[in-house]
Write a structure and sequence with these properties.
heterodimer; A: mainly alpha; MetI-like fold; 2 domains; two-stranded antiparallel ribbon; about 70% helix; globular; B: alpha+beta; Rossmann fold; six-stranded mixed β-sheet; five-stranded antiparallel β-sheet; about 35% strand
Chain lengths: ~300, ~375
Amino acid sequence: MNHTAAPINPAQGGLSDLSIRNLFIIPTIVFLILINVFPLLWSLYLSFHEWRANSADDPVFVGIQNYREVLNDSNFWDTFTLTAQYVVYAVIGEVMVGFGIALLLNRSMRGKGLITTLLLLPMMMSPAVVGLFWKLLWNPSWGIVNPLLGLPNDFAWLSDPDRAMWAVVITDVWMWAPFVMLLSLAGLSAIPQYLYEAAEIDRASWWFTFRNITLPLVSPLLLIAIIFRTMENFKQFDMIFTMTGGGPGINTEVNAIKLYRMAFQQWDTGKSCAFAYIMLIMVIGISNIYIKYLNKAKQR
Amino acid sequence: MATIRLSNIVKRFGPLEVIKQLNLDIKDREFVVLLGPSGCGKTTTLRAIAGLEEIDSGEIAIDGQEVQALPARDRDIAFVFQLFALYPHLSAFDNIAFPLKAAGVAKNEIAAKVKEVASVLRIGSIIDHMPSAMSGGDMQRVAMARALVRDPKAMLMDEPMGSLDAKLREELRTELKHLHIETGSTTVYVTHDQVEAMSMGDKIAVMDLGILQQIGKPKEVYDNPANVFVAQFIGSPVMNLVDCQCDGNGDVTHVVIGERHVDRFEFSKAIYEKLKAKDFNQKSLAVGIRPEAVLVERQPTNGYIKAEVDDIEPLGPYDIVDLKVGDDVMRASTRSRYVEREGQEVWIHLDENRLHFFDTVSGESLGI
């Protein structure tokens, strides 16, 4: 009797590793190159050229002139300052509200899951939709904000040069505080209960426990939330654009809106590419500072 | 330092009563061990004293002052957790300093106190280490240092050696005992390990099913167990417990074991007299004898009965021998290699002074 066993194919009936690669990974890489890597390199090329995307002329090499122009123009620095203000206010607001809610939710109580899910709804919406809705809510004569706050119906928000920024920041906090809450909640619930028991035995007050146990142990996740929100807010476009379009005047014209106007209204393509690269470098720089802190916090 | 008194403590988790009417008196400077199998309510009792667990009824008094309504931080007791509960982001120094910092003690005073307690516990060399870089024994010492550093009214310890290896436990047991003698702190120590209980406790409180079964000095609990549970929980190997009948014809007491009614141990008349005085029930009588009180001879000896060796466990300093007497099996501890082989015939007797009698229905000892 001489039965030879059939060769065993581990992927018999399924896909081989090779076909999985061809089917899934190659298309992904192709798309990534087409819509991410190529534009990135192409815009880098354009940032050193004088070119208008709506004209038939070929790009003209101008060296670092675009960069020099952006960095020397005081208007750009005003925009950067405005953007920085917006980022700082919005991130502080998001962290305070989000972390605060997380502290309140970090206990066993009825309906916790439902409350958490409901609180997460704002961040599941499209920013453009949020912008449009809040534009209605902020409307002085028939929006709901003024009656709720007991303000007169001529109390302008989005059309007021000083208040427009606050309205934008508050809207952003409403939308993204849940994100900070979610990460904080994950961090808080990962702190073992026995540490709090030990602190109680050690006769630590609530505040002492919060500063010396809760905060240090939740800080890695909180920092991740802050990194994400800083980067996102730095390039914030759609929500503000649908709400104010950058106005009144240029009072809410943050970097991304300025960039949009420069690239697609003034068609100054080369210079806007240079501007975009300056933004990119800044975001990378800021993120790296955070990541350094994050690594420090994680080491403890 | 302080006294601790528990009166009529009841604790329920839902419908389950985990502590039932517990009364316990702990004197100043006493080292009391709460001993029992897992789930007996000993840890819950300890947490209730600490204030980490609310009780449903009863009173807890520390130094005569009722504290059952106070939160843990107002009871001024220290607690060493089973898994140490060190703050993972703080060094050994900062862990030990934590209770002092929380109390707002001045910096130089903190440094001095931490240094002092660290030298007592011999952890000076690892004072800058993070908990993740410490061995189990080091973590245990740091946890103890953190508990001791602020001079609490009492020390509560929840199986502090539960996660350490056997050699280290032995070492720390001695250390802990010395530490207790030095500091003189009132200590309640929870364990399921009877060796720890016997070696460290001034008193042992044996618990089972949420009920305090017996409290007393280690020797008392060992020599006079109050019931079947205590008798069999304390002592290794466990006490032999064999159903028996007892009669007092003539000048002697006969204790008959097994169904065959031929295996008869003979004792003095006094045993029967004592049993009769206790109004014993012949139908539910059991005799208890510790393995070391089972006397074994290799030759036929007067007054001894014949038994067959069923199994020998050589443990080094002594052997545990399983002996078949009729249908019953009794374990004896003998000198090393005194009994040579399985199947061998030996002659056994029971040490009259170390007999225990129990009522198997109530489980209570008859106190002979």
